[in-house]
Structures are given as structure tokens and as C-alpha cells.
Write a structure and sequence with these properties.
single chain; 135 residues
Length: 135
């Protein structure tokens, strides 16, 4: 999934966590669950980062201040730091450790660009929900 989708989903499951210390576990779990689903990923990392920053900015501007939401979002995108380092040739494919990136957990097949519309829509719904319910 795209970074912005991981941020939105991680924030959402963080909000659902029964205690803030569980939000990171929920966020990482959401990353795994979303990566199993067939999806579209941007080829250009700068687009991923830009849309991820937009989601974070909207949550900040919207006044979302619940720690569990931010922990869930942070830990949901943390695995993709590994992908960024790999794309920048800082680490090799063999140095990846996240289960979805090394084949321990199957990665969803590539979906067409129309999948991106679903990711945008679902992320927008989640962001509006979080701003309205947790600000």
C-alpha cells in the first residue's frame, strides 16, 4: 500500500487500541494486513512521501492530539523506512528484515492504478473520522 494509506490505517487502529502502549503493535499489524491485499504502489518515492506528508499535515491541522493515533501511524509507516533505504541503495535486498518485505508474509500482487482511488477514498474517510472524533 501507499505510505499515506499506511499512515491513515495506522492512525485509525491506533485510535482503536485499548491502551496507548498497544498502538505500535496495532500500527505494525495494520502494515502487514494492508500489504497482503493486492494494491498499487507509486514508482516514484517522492509522490509517496508527499501524500504521506499531506495526511500528517491534515491530521495536525485538524487538531488530532491523541498519542495512540500518532503511535499507530508512526509504527504503521516504520517498515517502509526500510523500503526507502533500499530504494536509495543504502541497504541491500538481503538486509531487509520486515516480514512482508522478505517474503515471510506474502506481499499482495500489484493492482492497477484504479486501486489508488480506493486508497485515497479510504484514507480520506479515516482522516475525516479521526479529526471529527479525536480533536
Amino acid at each position: 500500500m501507499c505510505i499515506f494509506t499506511h499512515i491513515a490505517a495506522g492512525a485509525f487502529v491506533g485510535a482503536l487500541a485499548p491502551a496507548p502502549f498497544l498502538a505500535p503493535v496495532f500500527g505494525l499489524g495494520s502494515h502487514i494486513a494492508l500489504d497482503i491485499i493486492p494494491h498499487y504502489d507509486f514508482e516514484r518515492m517522492w509522490l509517496e512521501i508527499m501524500f504521506g506528508c499531506i495526511v500528517v499535515a491534515v491530521l495536525v491541522i485538524g487538531g488530532t492530539r491523541v498519542l495512540a493515533i500518532w503511535l499507530g501511524a508512526l509504527f504503521a509507516i516504520l517498515p517502509d523506512l526500510e523500503n526507502l533505504l533500499w530504494k536509495l541503495s543504502v541497504i541491500s535486498d538481503e538486509q531487509k528484515i520486515f516480514p512482508g518485505h522478505v517474503g515471510i508474509v506474502p506481499h499482495g500482487r500489484k493492482a492497477g492504478i484504479m486501486n489508488l482511488l480506493g486508497q485515497f477514498g479510504a484514507s480520506a474517510i479515516v482522516v475525516v473520522y479521526l479529526i471529527r472524533g479525536y480533536s
